[in-house]
Design a protein that fits this description.
The complex is a heterodimer. Chain A is an all-alpha fold. Chain A is globular and about 55 Å long.
């Protein structure tokens, strides 16, 4: 019960202090909208439905990784993060509480292009349960990637730089806009080492029916990535922040 | 067994040894002061005890709980005030206290009245709804201490609690520390203010270059150098020849004239007063005042650590005083 109180209050504090701030809300809306419009203007003939999986994945990826990496680095540099390290709560509870807010923010980001698209196209064929599962799993793995970046960064600008170092290659390697089958042969194994590939593939399957892996396999892979990233983050926090 | 037990504590960063084989024990309800200049190893020691830094030690226990293996259990009974206020700038005072209480698993119906009570106690009631970033240095420090007390800890760790804050806030904090002691809270306090340590600590440890040089109560520490006796004479006139004549007459005494023209006789033995007074009488020197000079804690610190008190004073200036 005590852990739950701590978990809920960390989550509530993060949402109130960071995610519900006007700049972040507007960023969470404007960024996915801009990308959607950019893709539509650049390729006017393309079906919005085909673009949607990539746009959803990208919105979640950018929203989660940057937010968590930046907020944690910000709290670390102001030393308020020490409060959490000194509280009688386990590292597991602390990590889960910190990523929970980001996951919710990522899910919110994901639905911006979906809502936008709903004004132009019929989305009734989408398996919403599977879409939500994919969005959730992408949000979890991306948040944990953000946390991994935060553990390595000392300053906010470092966190932003590291985030981009991870994110931009993922845009091209995970089948968001370029199908994996169109990538050079030597890059394809790299694609399958990135969690976003599996999340995007589930989204492709549920939105346009163009998945290359079974949703069950992709979900399993995402779950494995989430567990492995969680333990790496936990280990790194223990090693790097408890000096 | 003490409330806090530390034995053979050591911490190295690369080739630099920040803490070198430190051992001490703090009894329940005691105020234990850790006095030393900046960089002496005070905060490194504290961070290891509170679980923010990985120690190399044979034993660290708080109320019998092994901090190394049961860090979280030990942290539950600790209140920690770091050297820099680490509350959330975006949140107001009341919300900061409630959030800290929630981290210790306190329910809303417990934490809100406790937060109000602490705001009142620390005279921050009117600032309770003001964002933390708008607080003055003294207010920030007081709220940070209030946050450390929100879960009524058994042991309170204070790292330089009055550094860089106004006189009134410092006084309030010292009074609060003494009040907590009365209620049975064990307090570990690091400081580089000699007067503060002398005024409120039951026992003091002098730390320099990562090692405890001496520890004990103020009288015990004084005792370690008080085998020197000194008497100051305030007279109506002084002759330059007086010190030489006195030293010749009273063997083993060192006689000096101070800038205020008073005369100081120092000796390892007690100084018999009557023969000295007789000497002054024969020389037709009127003695207005004769008083024994006792060493201050600052003298003890300087003598035992070899660190000039000016180093501590410089630290004070850096701290904003």
């Amino acid at each position: 019960m005590k852990s739950w109180i701590a978990f809920w209050n960390i989550l509530k504090k993060d949402i109130k202090n960071y995610y519900l701030k006007p700049p972040n809300i507007s960023w969470g809306i404007i960024f996915p909208l801009s990308w959607t419009l950019m893709q539509l203007i650049r390729s006017p003939g393309r079906n919005i439905l085909e673009l949607l999986p990539g746009l959803i994945s990208m919105s979640v990826l950018f929203g989660t990784t940057s937010m968590l990496a930046v907020t944690i680095t910000f709290e670390r540099s102001g030393r308020s993060f020490d409060r959490l390290l000194l509280a009688p709560i386990s590292l597991n509870v602390m990590v889960l509480a910190k990523i929970a807010g980001t996951i919710l923010f990522g899910i919110f980001n994901a639905f911006v292009p979906v809502i936008f698209a709903s004004f132009f196209i019929d989305l009734s064929a989408i398996d919403w349960g599977l879409l939500l599962l994919a969005v959730l799993m992408i949000a979890i793995t991306s948040s944990l990637t953000g946390l991994l970046i935060a553990v390595s960064a000392k300053q906010v600008f470092e966190a932003q730089t590291f985030s981009n170092f991870f994110r931009f290659p993922m845009l091209f390697l995970c089948g968001l806009f370029i199908p994996i089958s169109s990538l050079p042969l030597f890059l394809r194994p790299v694609s399958f080492c990135l969690p976003l590939t599996y999340g995007t593939d589930i989204l492709r399957g549920t939105i346009v029916g163009a998945n290359i892996l079974s949703p069950l396999l992709s979900s399993g892979m995402l779950l494995i990535f989430a567990v492995v990233l969680f333990f790496i983050c936990r280990h790194n926090i223990n090693e790097k922040w408890i000096l | 067994m003490g409330m806090v037990n530390v034995s053979n504590l050591k911490k190295t960063y690369g080739n630099f040894t920040a803490v070198n084989d430190i051992s001490f024990e703090i009894d329940k309800g005691e105020i234990f002061g850790f006095l030393g200049p900046n960089g002496a190893g005070k905060t490194s020691t504290l961070n290891m005890i509170i679980g923010l830094s990985r120690p190399t030690a044979e034993e660290i226990t708080v109320d019998g709980i092994d901090v190394k293996s049961q860090t979280k259990k030990a942290q539950a009974i600790m209140g920690i005030v770091p050297d820099e206020s680490n509350l959330y700038n975006e949140m107001d005072g009341f919300d900061n206290l409630c959030f800290c209480a929630a981290l210790y698993g306190m329910r809303k119906e417990e934490r809100e009245p406790k937060a109000r009570q602490l705001l009142e106690q620390f005279r921050l009631k009117d600032a309770g709804k003001r964002p933390f970033k708008a607080y003055s240095k003294g207010m920030r420090r007081k709220l940070t201490i209030a946050a450390a007390l929100i879960h009524s800890p058994q042991v309170l760790f204070l790292d330089e609690p009055t550094t860089g804050i106004d006189v009134e806030s410092s006084r309030q904090i010292r009074d609060m520390v003494l009040e907590l002691k009365k209620k049975g809270t064990t307090i570990f306090l690091t400081t580089h203010y000699i007067e503060e340590a002398e005024r409120i600590c039951d026992r003091i440890a002098f730390i320099a270059e990562g090692q405890i040089v001496a520890s004990g109560t103020v009288p015990q520490l004084m005792e370690s150098i008080s085998h020197d006796h000194a008497i100051q004479f305030v007279t109506d006139k002084n002759f330059e020849s007086l010190p030489v004549e006195l030293e010749a007459l009273f063997k083993g005494n060192e006689v000096t004239i101070r800038p205020d023209h008073s005369l100081v006789m120092a000796s390892e033995q007690r100084i018999p007063l009557f023969p000295v007074m007789e000497f002054f009488h024969n020389k037709e020197v009127e003695v207005y005042e004769a008083r024994e000079l006792r060493p201050s804690l600052e003298d003890v610190f300087v003598k035992l650590t070899g660190i000039e008190s000016s180093v501590l004073k410089k630290d004070k200036e850096k701290g904003g005083h």
